[in-house]
Design a protein that fits this description.
single chain, alpha+beta, 3 domains, eight-stranded mixed beta sheet, 17 helices
Length: 651
């Protein structure tokens, strides 16, 4: 008795990943047929499931149980069987064979039954490949044979892959979707099929669904006539590795298929290694990247590589970052040749990024700008954000130095500018939130209130993100003290004022803001009282909104009498509809000019204060206008703006 020259169960359990599926079984079986010089391969797929129906309409999916592969290849010749019986054989290594592929069968199925009819020796050979495989159990029988034919039957799934008896019912079977299976096989084997097509060998693969009685085919015409381009990648030690990019770009609507390949087979997609690209509408294509380096680094299942994202070591001297940096340059050149509208497409994507993340525009890599229209927008933004964060960290490290170089100073200025743009961009989100509250006529005052400044809080200086008082006016962010929904007694104590002659000490203005009236005399204050009313009430909305005016007058009078407070203004913020506008004008309020709806103003001469009634819509319009002016100034200084302008000039 001669056992296989290795422990099969150990190989399957330790060397073959638990992630393999019936797709991997198909890939391996079909590839083995091709390497055995088969030109006609038939894949029979069947299921033991019962089709559920609802009024004759089929419901639910049917899954694959058995697989049978039939081909016209060389079969189990003496040389092939000798190789089959040896783990990691060197036989057919030139074709990319690792000598481990057949063990994938035993990860999914309990056994693989081979029957080979060989015309040259008029012999039928049969083996059962399982964990107890014995190389001497090759059965030989003399028969009349007209053509070579080899059959592999895989029928009994392992319990790790499909266990119908277990309560939890482990079921990893693939769906019996013939078109999807064909597509997956084509995408996996397209480099192999192209390789053989170049040599004048045309291969046909048929897929037969025995359950539904359907069939589809991969024909030689399905394999594109690719072009080739070589380039080199240099590692940190100066060693050079050659890469071959096989590609095709067509002016036809469709998808872009991109794969890293090893041993003439696709392994994983570009996007799996953080290089996500796409083609514009009306274009399609293939990108297949091969290298001897990939052949060495591919795993046993040929579904991944032993290559790190960024780092390298003595065993893996190239990283995906190194490879993709050079690959991106090659792709950029190819799309300029194959897609005439490249500049316009890039410009459109750049414009989107400029609108969405204006503070990151200076941190987008030049290579990404060159092919922006074909890259994933989120990936461009994420990379730019990382560079932005690195720049911030660098400036912080250099902080406190007695002297700065010109480069360090320019970096700090650039960073400060972009931090400010980031802040302005965040303000856009706040404005959009306020718009939503106005549009839905928000009746809950606390929701509106907290958008300006969180209730029951106070503060003595403004910093980005603390509150949104800039919605009222950017000047209001210069406060020396701000209180939100705080009792007047607490506010007066905080600004070190007396409580004399105030009879509403327990009242709580929505917002109480104080500013130094004179920088040389910070104790002389200017005050702004803000009352916020819901944008709608269930009944008598205009009357309830107008009641805020009297509240403001009471608050203003309470603070006006204080020695250190020289000026006091009152602002009522709400949604000003026509009924409220009429009521204000009857009461002597005068509409003032604004960007949108009027701001209503009345000066109360007897108490010497001004009250303003401001529509939330006006706040939104004015805040947007201020933001837009600032962002336009910044945009016109950016490299992306100049690129967009140049593109528009060319067009």
């Amino acid at each position: 008795m001669s056992q296989m020259l290795a422990e099969i169960s150990r190989i399957v359990n330790e060397d073959i990943s638990n992630r393999v599926t019936q797709y991997d079984v198909l890939f391996e079986a079909i590839t083995n047929s091709i390497h055995a010089n088969a030109t006609s391969i038939k894949c029979y797929l069947n299921s033991n499931d019962s089709q559920l129906t609802d009024n004759t309409k089929e419901i639910g999916s049917i899954r694959v149980d058995s697989i049978k592969i039939l081909d016209n290849g060389d079969g189990l010749t003496d040389e092939n069987y000798k190789s089959f019986s040896k783990y990691r054989t060197e036989f057919k290594k030139a074709l990319g064979c690792k000598g481990v592929g057949r063990f994938v069968f035993l990860k999914v199925y309990e056994s693989a039954n081979f029957t080979s009819r060989i015309k040259s020796i008029k012999e039928q050979r049969t083996i059962n490949f399982d964990f107890n495989f014995d190389t001497e159990n090759l059965k030989k029988e003399k028969v009349k044979i007209l053509e070579n034919e080899t059959e592999i039957v895989l029928s009994k799934l392992t319990k790790q892959y499909y266990d119908s008896e277990n309560d939890k019912k482990q079921d990893r079977r693939i769906e019996l979707d013939l078109h999807n299976i064909r597509e997956r096989v084509l995408m996996n084997l397209i480099p192999t099929l192209f390789f053989y097509k170049q040599k004048g060998i045309n291969i046909t693969i048929d897929f037969i669904d025995e359950f539904h009685h359907l069939s589809v085919q991969i024909k030689p015409e399905d394999i594109p006539n690719f072009l080739e381009k070589t380039f080199e990648v240099k590692n940190s030690d100066g060693n050079i590795f050659k890469f071959l990019l096989t590609y095709k770009i067509e002016n036809l609507a469709g998808s872009l298929y991109t794969y890293y390949c090893a041993n003439n087979r696709t392994v994983c997609q570009f996007e799996d290694k953080d290089f996500k690209i796409s083609m514009p509408y009306g274009y399609s294509g293939f990108m297949l990247l091969e290298s001897e380096y990939f052949n060495q680094k591919v795993n046993n299942e040929r579904n991944d590589f032993d290559i790190y994202p960024v780092k390298t070591d003595i065993f893996s001297t190239l990283s995906w970052e190194m490879i993709n940096t050079e690959l991106k340059k090659q792709f950029s050149d190819l799309i300029k040749e194959g897609v005439p509208e490249t500049k316009r497409i890039n410009s459109e994507k750049i414009r989107q990024i400029q609108e969405e993340r204006p503070y990151l525009v200076q941190y987008i890599e030049d290579e990404d700008i060159e092919m922006a229209g074909f890259l994933d927008k989120r990936a461009i933004i994420e990379k730019a954000k990382k560079r932005f964060d690195i720049a911030k960290e660098k400036v912080l490290i250099n902080a406190g130095k007695e002297e700065y170089s010109d480069d360090e100073l320019n970096e700090a200025i650039q960073l400060a500018q972009n931090e400010l743009v980031s802040y302005i961009n965040d303000r856009v989100l706040v404005i959009e939130r306020l718009k939503t509250l106005v549009d839905k006529s928000e009746r809950v005052e606390s929701i509106i209130h907290n958008l300006f400044m969180k209730k029951y809080t106070s503060d003595d200086y403004f910093s980005v993100g603390k509150n949104n008082l800039w919605l009222l006016d950017d000047r209001f962010t210069t406060y020396s003290y701000a209180a939100s929904d705080k009792r007047i007694i607490n506010v007066l104590n905080d600004i070190k004022e007396t409580l004399d002659d105030v009879d509403i000490l327990n009242d709580k203005p929505d917002l109480s803001l104080f500013f130094s009236h004179n920088p040389n005399n910070p104790e002389r204050l200017k005050s702004v009282m803000v009352e916020i009313k819901p944008f709608d009430f269930s009944t008598k909305s205009d009357r309830k909104k107008f009641s805020g005016v009297q509240q403001l007058i009471d608050y203003v009078k309470a603070f006006k009498t204080k020695e250190n407070i020289q000026e006091v203004y009152g602002y009522l913020i709400t949604d000003v509809d026509q009924k409220l506008a009429d009521r204000l004008e009857i009461d002597g309020y005068v509409p003032l000019f604004s960007s949108d709806a009027p701001i209503y103003h009345r000066y109360f001469e007897k108490i010497g204060v001004s009250i303003y009634v401001v529509s939330a819509k006006t706040l939104i319009y004015d805040a947007e206008a201020r933001n837009k002016i600032f962002l336009n100034i910044i945009k016109k200084q950016s490299k992306l703006y100049k690129l967009i302008q140049n593109t528009e000039t060319i067009e």
